[in-house]
Amino acid sequence: MKELLRKGYDPLIVDDLSEGHAEAVPPDRLHRFSLSDTGELRAFLEREEVDAVIHFAAHCYVGESMEDPLKYYRNNAANALNLLEETVRAGVRRFVFSSTCATYGEPRRLPLREDHPQDPVNVYGDTKLVVEKMLRALDRSHRFRSISLRYFNASGADPEGELGEDHHPETHLIPLVLQVALGQRDEIRIFGDDYDTPDGTCIRDYIHVVDLAAAHIRALEYLDAGGETDAFNVGTGNGFSVREVVDAARRITGHPIPALVDPRRPGDPAELVAESTKIREKLGWEPRFTAAEEIIRTAWEWHRNHPDGYTD
Ligand SMILES: NC(=O)c1ccc[n+]([C@@H]2O[C@H](COP(=O)([O-])OP(=O)(O)OC[C@H]3O[C@@H](n4cnc5c(N)ncnc54)[C@H](O)[C@@H]3O)[C@@H](O)[C@H]2O)c1
User: What confidence tier does 104 reach under pLDDT thresholds 50, 70, 90?
Assistant: First the structure.
């Protein structure tokens, strides 16, 4: 939202606030309803003369998606279908979709390139792949242009200190580590230190939210300029292990951050790192935040100024 406003767009938000925080967005731009509400959605798209859609809304917990798969297919796939039907009907021709590296499944080669087979190992990843497939089909049937952005691990916070991460429950490594530094948790639990990686812990590609936001603007500009339907990884191409993240957080917070090692979790690949050449070359995107310390520093600033997250 901040980045869109800075670039001169006139963005509106549709969110049912099942997870999000009203406080994170300007109140006059928030429209509170669910994508399952076809009537509201249709009226909104017509009334507001929407000319582009960025589709972020989804349920996002991998573990929960395995325990309650239909909840995920309903919201992430069926409600996305609803949105797509109404978007096509309203004549909107630009669509940017929050996809995920979880659509690749277990890596067969690294770094992950966009043409790596998509074979998700969890329901969450599968629901996102379903939407990518709908978008590819709509391109063929209706010349409906879209960009799927396959995020790696979104992280960090607004460097101006206004926006940060606040999930319930929190499952992301960096906020969890920072909650230990704030005294809200006793220790960080590392799931497995016997992986085939240099320090034995899992390696992930952390993409700063500012860089992620910039990728969406690039995708809109690309579609505006007549770009074709496509999918892009959004990652820096640098992987950090869990231990490297914890060590960087110790340096930045000055807190010892005790860590305990638990057994591996099923379905956690040893390494997920993006090949990011395609987005750099085709969309002209470059990440600004490439070091773990830089990313964690912005998150730390937000967490220590908002130890209880958003007030709502
Ligand atoms: N955070 C990550 O590391 C990451 C990685 C890959 C992909 N993604 C994708 O990015 C998007 C945003 O992720 P996030 O981490 O900000 O999650 P989030 O839960 O903070 O944001 C999702 C938002 O969608 C809203 N929402 C959910 N269902 C809705 C519905 N039916 N109607 C209206 N609003 C609805 C929620 O209230 C919430 O505000 C998601 O699509 C997620 O799958 C995130």
Answer: very high
Best mutation site among 2, 44, 60 for ligand 1 pocket (most ligand atoms within 8 Å of CB): 60
Judge whether 61 counts as a catalytic residue: no
Residues whose CB is less than 8 angstroms from the CB of residue 264 and which lie 6 or more positions away in sequence, other chains included: 191, 192, 194, 195
Question: At 122, phi and psi to the nearest 5?
Answer: -140, 160
* Single pTM value for the model: 0.97
Residue pLDDT, tens place only, 208-222: 999 999 999 999 999
140 Cα to the center of ligand 1, angstroms: 27
In this prediction, what percent of the chain has a pLDDT beyond 70? 100
Cβ < 6 Å from ligand 1: which residues?
14-20, 34-36, 56-58, 60, 75, 79, 98, 100, 151, 153-154
Fold annotation for 2-305: Rossmann fold (3.40.50)
Mean pLDDT of 266-281: 94
For range 70-80, the mean pLDDT: 98
Instruction: Report the b/e string of 145-158 with b at 16+ CB within 10 A.
Output: bbbbbbbbbbbbbb
CB 134 within 8 A of CB 273: no
Q: How far is the CA of 196 from the centre of ligand 1 (A)?
A: 31
User: Of 59, 124, 41, 135, whose CA–CA distance to 97 is shortest?
Assistant: 135
pLDDT, tens digit, 9 for 90 and up, residues 17-68: 999 999 999 999 999 999 999 999 999 999 999 999 999 999 999 999 999 9
Among 72, 124, 151, 206, the active-site one is 124
